[in-house]
């Protein structure tokens, strides 16, 4: 006999597990289904983010940053180290430990919140009395009936046409996180978040890294001033970045990968590398979901069609995260998951797409929220801009990390903050203040009038807000 639930969530990534927990907090009976399995065969909830995305990449970024500091920067602090070595298996092992801690943490949260977890693949069977019949295929098959279903199946990396991932030489984000030995030469196709972060990891560990990007402009999604500073910093560190390229052919050999491409000027080029990371975007993961069986509507790119409330074309079926429109960000999925659980409970869940921050965890870090200058110019919006360099910030000097700046964009008449763009130390943490101000539709003057502790990096935010009115105090 089928097990009955108020809500069944398919997928335990950031959107799915958060939706399940919030629904349970609101008094509903909830099940969450996820098929991800750890190397030791145990359940590994958390989706791409926890297993092969946000969490493991940040662990490797941290380890590689320590290695870089020990090799090149400790001497500036009077710390002398001779013969710095690298135990890559230990470094990768630490990353795996961090991942497992997060997997176990989610399983604990399910137990704490009385969410029933099923380890397996969930799919639609039919619309039945009482809701939707969902089948779970795993070590043991389960038959569930749910009044409401939340689809949170995430996304998968996009392959280059005719070049499937083998995770040995042609790597997705998954394979790029577990290369067994530092390659001498590493190629990266795609200068987006994943390409730049993982390229930075292996560059720090000793690889010669070349990044090939199809777009004519580097980091076109970011503010142009930020993108220019990022290109300068990353190139200085040793990343070879080529934009405006057209990939003609990629061939894999016994121990190498050869990429034939045309550069921005149209000249034919050849790059031979030991490993190739392909990071050209992600596609919604709907395979095996049974979407066609129940008539779930999808758009021409394969995304599940939803309205502003994340309702799909089917009654009482919702979808969140990477599998629907909007930015493919873990925190966006989480916000949608909470909002959907609250809507199911009859509340008014809310997601403000205008205040979802974006972060790139390179060094320097890059973070932004709201509109950039090129967007405001295109819209014809009158605005004021204020910026402040980290080289004039006392804490940044003490850290020895003065690259970059904070830029605040505000409405020319009302002073409402329209966007904040940061490149520099701890940008990922500093952006939260900007998100808060914008969520309350605050003004640059509000940031400028708030007392910021000294000496802190956050003072750069205050000074950038002061700069909007041309009254910086420390620059």
From TrEMBL:
<protein>
    <recommendedName>
        <fullName>Dihydrolipoyl dehydrogenase</fullName>
        <ecNumber>1.8.1.4</ecNumber>
    </recommendedName>
</protein>
<keyword id="KW-0520">NAD</keyword>
<dbReference type="InterPro" id="IPR016156">
    <property type="entry name" value="FAD/NAD-linked_Rdtase_dimer_sf"/>
</dbReference>
<keyword id="KW-0274">FAD</keyword>
<dbReference type="InterPro" id="IPR050151">
    <property type="entry name" value="Class-I_Pyr_Nuc-Dis_Oxidored"/>
</dbReference>
<feature type="binding site">
    <location>
        <begin position="328"/>
        <end position="331"/>
    </location>
    <ligand>
        <name>FAD</name>
    </ligand>
</feature>
<dbReference type="InterPro" id="IPR036188">
    <property type="entry name" value="FAD/NAD-bd_sf"/>
</dbReference>
<feature type="binding site">
    <location>
        <begin position="153"/>
        <end position="155"/>
    </location>
    <ligand>
        <name>FAD</name>
    </ligand>
</feature>
<keyword id="KW-0560">Oxidoreductase</keyword>
<dbReference type="InterPro" id="IPR004099">
    <property type="entry name" value="Pyr_nucl-diS_OxRdtase_dimer"/>
</dbReference>
<dbReference type="Pfam" id="PF07992">
    <property type="entry name" value="Pyr_redox_2"/>
</dbReference>
<feature type="binding site">
    <location>
        <position position="58"/>
    </location>
    <ligand>
        <name>FAD</name>
    </ligand>
</feature>
<feature type="disulfide bond" description="Redox-active">
    <location>
        <begin position="49"/>
        <end position="54"/>
    </location>
</feature>
<dbReference type="InterPro" id="IPR023753">
    <property type="entry name" value="FAD/NAD-binding_dom"/>
</dbReference>
<feature type="binding site">
    <location>
        <position position="122"/>
    </location>
    <ligand>
        <name>FAD</name>
    </ligand>
</feature>
<dbReference type="InterPro" id="IPR006258">
    <property type="entry name" value="Lipoamide_DH"/>
</dbReference>
<dbReference type="GO" id="GO:0050660">
    <property type="term" value="F:flavin adenine dinucleotide binding"/>
</dbReference>
<keyword id="KW-0547">Nucleotide-binding</keyword>
<feature type="binding site">
    <location>
        <position position="213"/>
    </location>
    <ligand>
        <name>NAD(+)</name>
    </ligand>
</feature>
<feature type="domain" description="Pyridine nucleotide-disulphide oxidoreductase dimerisation">
    <location>
        <begin position="356"/>
        <end position="465"/>
    </location>
</feature>
<feature type="binding site">
    <location>
        <position position="322"/>
    </location>
    <ligand>
        <name>FAD</name>
    </ligand>
</feature>
<feature type="domain" description="FAD/NAD(P)-binding">
    <location>
        <begin position="5"/>
        <end position="337"/>
    </location>
</feature>
<keyword id="KW-0285">Flavoprotein</keyword>
<keyword id="KW-0963">Cytoplasm</keyword>
<dbReference type="InterPro" id="IPR001100">
    <property type="entry name" value="Pyr_nuc-diS_OxRdtase"/>
</dbReference>
<feature type="binding site">
    <location>
        <begin position="190"/>
        <end position="197"/>
    </location>
    <ligand>
        <name>NAD(+)</name>
    </ligand>
</feature>
<comment type="similarity">
    <text>Belongs to the class-I pyridine nucleotide-disulfide oxidoreductase family.</text>
</comment>
<keyword id="KW-0676">Redox-active center</keyword>
<feature type="active site" description="Proton acceptor">
    <location>
        <position position="454"/>
    </location>
</feature>
<dbReference type="GO" id="GO:0005737">
    <property type="term" value="C:cytoplasm"/>
</dbReference>
<dbReference type="GO" id="GO:0006103">
    <property type="term" value="P:2-oxoglutarate metabolic process"/>
</dbReference>
<dbReference type="GO" id="GO:0004148">
    <property type="term" value="F:dihydrolipoyl dehydrogenase (NADH) activity"/>
</dbReference>
<feature type="binding site">
    <location>
        <position position="281"/>
    </location>
    <ligand>
        <name>NAD(+)</name>
    </ligand>
</feature>
<dbReference type="Pfam" id="PF02852">
    <property type="entry name" value="Pyr_redox_dim"/>
</dbReference>
């Amino acid at each position: 006999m089928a097990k009955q639930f108020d809500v069944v969530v398919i997928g335990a990534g950031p959107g799915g597990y958060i939706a399940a927990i919030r629904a349970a907090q609101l008094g509903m009976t909830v099940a969450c289904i996820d098929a991800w399995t750890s190397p030791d065969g145990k359940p590994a909830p958390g989706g791409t983010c926890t297993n092969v995305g946000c969490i493991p990449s940040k662990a490797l970024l941290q380890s590689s940053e320590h290695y870089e500091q020990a090799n090149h920067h400790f001497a500036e602090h009077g710390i002398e180290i001779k013969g710095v070595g690298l135990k890559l298996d230990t470094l990768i092992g630490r990353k795996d430990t961090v991942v497992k801690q997060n997997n176990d943490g989610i399983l604990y949260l399910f137990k704490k919140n009385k969410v029933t977890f099923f380890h397996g693949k969930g799919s639609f069977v039919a619309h039945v009395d009482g809701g939707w019949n969902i089948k779970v295929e795993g070590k043991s098959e389960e038959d569930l009936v749910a009044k409401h279903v939340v689809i949170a199946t995430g996304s998968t990396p996009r392959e280059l046409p005719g070049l499937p991932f083998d995770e040995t030489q042609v790597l997705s984000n998954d394979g790029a996180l577990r290369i067994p030995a530092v390659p001498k030469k590493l190629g990266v196709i795609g200068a987006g978040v994943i390409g730049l972060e993982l390229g930075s990891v292996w560059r720090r560990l000793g690889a010669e890294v070349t990044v090939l990007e199809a777009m004519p402009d580097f980091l076109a999604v970011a503010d142009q001033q930020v993108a220019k500073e990022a290109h300068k910093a990353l190139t200085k560190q040793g990343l070879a970045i080529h934009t405006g390229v057209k990939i003609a052919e990629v061939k894999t050999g016994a121990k190498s990968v050869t990429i034939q491409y045309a550069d921005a000027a149209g000249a034919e080029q050849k790059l031979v590398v030991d490993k190739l990371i392909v990071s050209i975007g992600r596609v919604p993961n709907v395979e095996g979901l049974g979407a066609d069986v129940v008539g779930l509507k999808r758009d021409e790119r394969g995304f599940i069609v939803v309205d502003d409330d994340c309702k799909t074309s089917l009654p009482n079926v919702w979808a969140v995260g990477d599998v629907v429109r909007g930015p493919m960000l873990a925190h966006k999925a989480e916000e949608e998951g909470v909002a959907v659980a609250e809507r199911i409970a009859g509340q008014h869940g809310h997601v403000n797409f205008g205040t979802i921050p974006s972060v790139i965890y390179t060094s320097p870090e890059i973070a932004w929220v709201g509109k950039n200058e090129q967007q405001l110019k295109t819209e014809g919006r009158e605005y004021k801009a204020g910026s402040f360099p980290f080289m004039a910030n006392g804490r940044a000097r003490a850290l020895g990390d003065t690259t970059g700046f904070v830029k605040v964009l505000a409405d020319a008449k009302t002073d409402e903050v329209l966007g904040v763009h940061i490149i520099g130390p701890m940008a990922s943490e500093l952006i939260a203040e900007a998100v808060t101000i914008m969520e309350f539709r605050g003004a640059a003057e509000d940031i400028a009038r708030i007392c910021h502790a000294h000496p802190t990096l956050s003072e750069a935010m205050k000074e950038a807000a002061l700069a909007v009115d041309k009254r910086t105090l420390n620059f």
